[in-house]
Amino acid sequence: MINKLVSTVSEAVSGVFDGATIMIGGFGEAGSPIELIHALVDQGAKDLTIVSNNTGSGEVGLAALIAHKRVRKMICSFPRTANSTVFPELYKKGEIELELVPQGTLAERIRAGGAGIPAFYTPTSFGTPLAEGKETRIFDGVTYVMENAIKADFALVKARSADRYGNLIYNKTARNFGPIMCTAAKTTLVQVQHFVDLGDIDPEIVVTPGIFVQHVVVVENPADESKLVAENRRYPW
User: Fold this and answer.
1) CA 72 to CA 221: how far, in whole Å?
2) Is the pTM value of this prediction over 0.90?
């Protein structure tokens, strides 16, 4: 019998290894799997390459993982936002690497990775430092930059509901990068608020089919990242 439910977030991330490439869902706080990330801090894997939209806020969630110097390289679109201080400080010291990717290009590189497309062309970044060293071609008089797909060893994703097969639905904009990250990772780890019986999710509204999910863990009351940042909390507590 297929049952992808695991009992704890620690169990969910237990297989993450040093040097892994990990995609982490979220657009700022929305859709960020903060409990899975904290479990990864506790687990101890290091020299990680993280693919995410941003670099976290305060010293919780992704920012906490970076603060503990577990991350070797960030691939992201927004390395600095209003409440992000950890990554900018480490980057200035040369203690962490950055691959800056325009947001639409980041999404398409991940989607391509999941679809088995090795590379694609986009006009975005042409004529800027981000295009240096990359192949270019002209189509219909417009110059395009070739971008390679991104794939990962693991994806950490937050969804609203799952069944034991791993079928997922999301909460509105918390969906963001989650679905494409699930397809582009070898192993997808998902935290959900609701675990439902088979058949309780209408097949017509399934966003991520269970074939792309390996482990599901229930977190009924996920942390409010904005509140933790406002309180200047640090993980571990």
Assistant:
1) 31
2) yes
